[in-house]
């Protein structure tokens, strides 16, 4: 007896396992050796990723593998980013890969991304902590190799553009396992000495391994904790390091950093000329404002003269007088207008007008009454003629006029049956011009 337990199909079971794998493990990074690589016509890649103790089937679909930049070969060590899933048709678990790179560079890139994410979450890249770079720098410190090309390029540009700029060199290793702590120590030393206004930290170009000291956490935290503003100048324009993200300003190259903080002598001369012009304009404006103030004071002095005040009072009096006359005229005009309205209203309410109006009304009603009486009389005559004609058509006299007569018994009942009379009865016969009285002597049926 199975009771209330549901029965699963194989497909349902595989789907459940697939969902469990995806939810429980999700995205993973792992390194291994490629074997059994195949590339069918569909464009997808299928291979086995193994190490000396285990192996797992992998699939990298066409929409992901075209970004790899190379065709994997059997025996290559690679670093992959993949999702753990289940191939339901065969019930085999596999990896679906979305990123694949050769193991050497790939491991460094993975470390780079992990540290970058960690420091970003801590806020070391937040713009709120970026210190402004001074506009007019008088002394600059350089943390780099004393024998590298970067130092030579920076110094050459600074001397050409601004010979007065003081240069302080903090020599250090910039490559190898011991470089990162030495770079951090030199940044701390420059802060302790506090003998420059800004620091340039960097080196020339190279591979990811060559630039790696500038991706170390110790260097990133030394840059973040520095009280001196720091310009990161590592490698070429396309190279990005952790130091670039933490620094207060990133320069594409060491030479670009030198140009950012130095001011060209010709530009300084131009600035001086601009300042000279600004000072001259400021003096002209100052003198102009003082002259305006003097004129204003003269005008105020003149405006305080008694004659001027008297003239103002007279002008004010004339203005008030005109306003008063205008107000009186306006009031008179308004009263006259109101009087006209009342006069018209009184005329409309006069008894003579009302009597005349009622007379006209009575006359109109009288005329309407006469016309209505005539109309009714005419209509009555017409209806009477019609009724007389109709009455004449049914009158017994009219029947007699056509040659008929009407006979009645002694009780003046019209004879309609022989049963009403008998011999010896007196009957009357009505003709148009007379009434005939007769005695019944004989009754004969037709």
TrEMBL record:
Residues 124-437 form the Exonuclease VII large subunit C-terminal domain. Residues 8-100 form the OB-fold nucleic acid binding domain. Its EC number is 3.1.11.6. It is found in: Cytoplasm. Keywords: Cytoplasm, Exonuclease, Hydrolase, Nuclease. It is an enzyme of class 3 (hydrolase). It catalyses: Exonucleolytic cleavage in either 5'- to 3'- or 3'- to 5'-direction to yield nucleoside 5'-phosphates. Pfam families: Exonuc_VII_L, tRNA_anti_2. Coiled coil: none annotated. InterPro entries: Exonuc_VII_L, Exonuc_VII_lsu_C, OB-fold_nuc-bd_dom. Transmembrane segments: none annotated. Bidirectionally degrades single-stranded DNA into large acid-insoluble oligonucleotides, which are then degraded further into small acid-soluble oligonucleotides. PANTHER family: EXODEOXYRIBONUCLEASE 7 LARGE SUBUNIT. HAMAP family: Exonuc_7_L. Heterooligomer composed of large and small subunits. Belongs to the XseA family. This is Exodeoxyribonuclease 7 large subunit. It comes from Orbus sasakiae. The gene is xseA.
């Amino acid at each position: 007896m199975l009771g209330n337990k549901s029965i699963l199909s194989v497909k349902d079971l595989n789907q459940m396992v697939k969902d469990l794998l995806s939810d429980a493990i999700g995205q993973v990074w792992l390194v291994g050796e490629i074997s059994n690589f195949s590339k069918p016509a569909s464009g997808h890649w299928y291979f086995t990723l193994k190490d000396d103790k285990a192996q797992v089937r992998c699939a990298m679909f066409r929409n992901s593998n075209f970004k790899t930049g190379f065709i994997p070969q059997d025996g290559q060590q690679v670093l992959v980013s993949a999702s753990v899933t289940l191939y339901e048709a065969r019930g085999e678990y596999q990896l679906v890969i979305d990123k694949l790179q050769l193991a050497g560079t790939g491991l460094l890139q993975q470390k780079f991304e992990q540290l970058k994410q960690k420091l970003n979450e801590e806020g070391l890249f937040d713009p709120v902590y970026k210190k402004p770079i001074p506009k007019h720098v008088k002394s600059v410190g350089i943390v780099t190799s004393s024998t590298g090309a970067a130092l030579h390029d920076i110094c050459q540009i600074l001397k050409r553009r601004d010979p007065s700029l003081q240069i302080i060199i903090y020599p250090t290793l910039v490559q190898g396992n011991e470089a990162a702590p030495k770079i951090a120590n030199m940044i701390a030393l420059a802060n302790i000495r506090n003998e420059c206004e800004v620091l340039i930290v960097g080196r020339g170009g190279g591979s990811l391994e060559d630039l790696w000291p500038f991706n170390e956490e110790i260097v990133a935290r030394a840059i973040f904790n520095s009280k001196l503003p720091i310009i990161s100048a590592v490698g070429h324009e396309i190279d990005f390091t952790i130091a670039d993200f933490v620094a207060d300003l990133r320069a594409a190259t060491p030479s670009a950093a030198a140009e950012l903080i130095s001011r060209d002598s010709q530009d300084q001369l131009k600035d001086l000329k601009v300042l000279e012009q600004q000072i001259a304009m400021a003096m002209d404006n100052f003198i102009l404002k003082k002259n305006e103030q003097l004129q204003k004071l003269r005008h105020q002095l003149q405006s305080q003269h008694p004659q001027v005040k008297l003239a103002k009072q007279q002008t004010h009096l004339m203005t008030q007088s005109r306003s008063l006359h205008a107000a009186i005229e306006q009031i008179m005009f308004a009263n006259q207008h109101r009087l006209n309205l009342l006069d018209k209203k009184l005329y409309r309410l006069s008894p003579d007008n009302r009597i005349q109006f009622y007379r006209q009304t009575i006359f109109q009603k009288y005329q309407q009454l006469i016309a209505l009486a005539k109309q009714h009389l005419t209509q009555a005559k017409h209806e009477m003629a019609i009724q007389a004609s109709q009455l004449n058509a049914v009158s017994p006299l009219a029947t007699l006029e056509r040659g008929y007569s009407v006979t009645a018994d002694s009780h003046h009942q019209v004879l309609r049956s022989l049963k009403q009379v008998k011999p010896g009865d007196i009957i009357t016969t009505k003709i148009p011009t007379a009434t005939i009285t007769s005695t019944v002597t004989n009754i004969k049926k037709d």
